[in-house]
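seq as requested:
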Amino acid sequence: MTSDLRAHLSTPTFGDERLPKHFWAKVRVLPNGCWEWIACRSGDGYGRFGIGNLTDGSNRTIFAHRLAYTRLIGPIPQGLEPDHTCHNGTGCLGGPTCPHRACVNPGHIEPVTHAENVRRGIGTKGETSGQAKLTESDVRVIRAHRGEMRQID
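struct tokens:
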């Protein structure tokens, strides 16, 4: 078995030296096994981590969960994207406030196609969707008053 394959099959360990100490300083282990990113997050809720060097111009900001996966598991295959499996089946509404987007535990990440990632993320519909603005009750009231009321600027 090659060392690459062995590394890919090994279980990620919190504090692994393949990630810098200042990465681990930004992570908190939760009871559910998630490694929560407690530092800078993007507008859509994913952890952000700076790598590289300012003096040589190699500095850039990347998603923390992608860095953890590629360093502790291996590269994300071409054409696939990371899906947070800790989110699936939880009843979480998703969207930018989804707490699972902050998880950087590579054991909770699975490379999947974009279509599969979207399918898994759309598991909720109606008012349980993270994108919902109205409840089903609101919709019933609005429909019951159709033609009787009008929107005023």
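The longest helix spans residues 64-72.
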